[in-house]
Amino acid sequence: MNFSSNLSDNMKLLQGILKVDTNFDVVYRTISAGGRTACLYFVDGLTKDEVLLKLLQVFSSVQEQDMPANAHEFSKKYLPYGEVDLTTDVDSMVTYLLTGMSCLLIDGYDTCLVIDCRTYPARGVSEPDKDKVLRGSRDGFVETLIFNTALIRRRIRDPKLAMEILTAGESSHTDIAICYMNGRVDTDLLNTIKKRIQNLHVDALTMNQESLAECIYPHKWYNPFPKFRFSERPDTAAASILEGNIVILVDNSPSAMILPSSVFDIIEEADDYYFPPITGTYLRLSRMVISLLTLLLTPVWLLFMQNPEYIPSWLEFIQLSDPSHVPLIWQLLILEFAIDGLRLAAVNTPSMLTTPLSVIAGIVLGEYSVQSGWFNSETMLYMAFVTVANYSQASYELGYALKFMRVIILILTALFNLWGFLAGVVLSACFIIFNKTIAGKSYIYPLIPFSWSEVKKRFLRTRLPHQEKNSSAG
After folding, report:
1. 369-399: per-residue pLDDT in tens?
2. What DSSP letter does each residue of 325-370 carry, written as one string?
């Protein structure tokens, strides 16, 4: 539906759509511009008041004899503002308005002037709680899309950096920014991602990037290993773009979705590059070894407890020091669920009570549960290590994937002993090996297919690209 040149008809039409008398935050002001009646629509709280005031002063100063013949000429002559658009479609104007833009209708013009003088409530770009670093930048993404794109632009001052804007959701009309480097990105994957987003038929992206991820890549639900890498750090997102990856930013979400991502991409962290190569290599290898230990430590210990004859003499101290009243498999499974329960409780606990309640929970579960006979001290020790070690990498999705695989190995080991343990390890390996990235490539590249030069880059923190370029130039 298009606008007419009669302002009264346009205002009646918008009254029925916007329900201005009911929605207190949808405001309209009737003004005079060049001897004609005009109406300005905007959403209270999403508009820069000082910019709007200056524009109203300009409109009221227009003389009748200077009034242009069409809206395009009016925008060129009397809209001293950088971001102005024109539309004749009513639905487009309503969408623009509800995203925070101001819309001006003038009697005699069948075109709406859309002025982007919006502002969103936003918090400061402080360091994210999850993606902290020991050294490096302390800024992080926020819920405002334009702030997030600016943080990336600040780091990549190259005209080849492209940021395309798309929308999804019939009700939400959520803004989605696709960021990539021309000449480095996989164009086939880029076109596929854009086509999938454009063809989305959803009411709203209620869960932001998770909703988008499930829509553009409906992968097999039973494989828990993540297909995307999420980061709240703009330096990580910028580095990924320079490596040829695609970064997707969703409005109202303080994190970037990086794709395609293999398991090695997900394990990497910014600290690997904020320290010298030898330190970065140590941190990376430590993280990989600890992740492997979180998967295998408790199943291997359970296997040894079921088969004491497998224990070498130098490891005899790992045997139970006290009799076990509850089977070890049940102790481990109960603790797996109890730890998740404590984690959920910590999320919903008021911050002022988190520390004292954590101390109380630690004392009760650590001391009295052992004394009561529910758990052995060795079980508590190994599960405590697994719980703490699970936070050595930043990806929640990878942490839970390892947890699910660990529980499966534990159950198979308890049921079928050594053969169950081996079957669980093989099953976990198959989940990783036969997994695919969103680009259809191997999830564990460069191991499969094997590439020695890429393996060295994945396991060893080499010199940064600009250092290699400078050294070769010298």
Report:
1. 777 778 888 898 899 899 888 888 888 889 9
2. SS-HHHHHHHHHHHHHHHHHHHHHS-HHHHHHHHHHHHHIIIIIHH
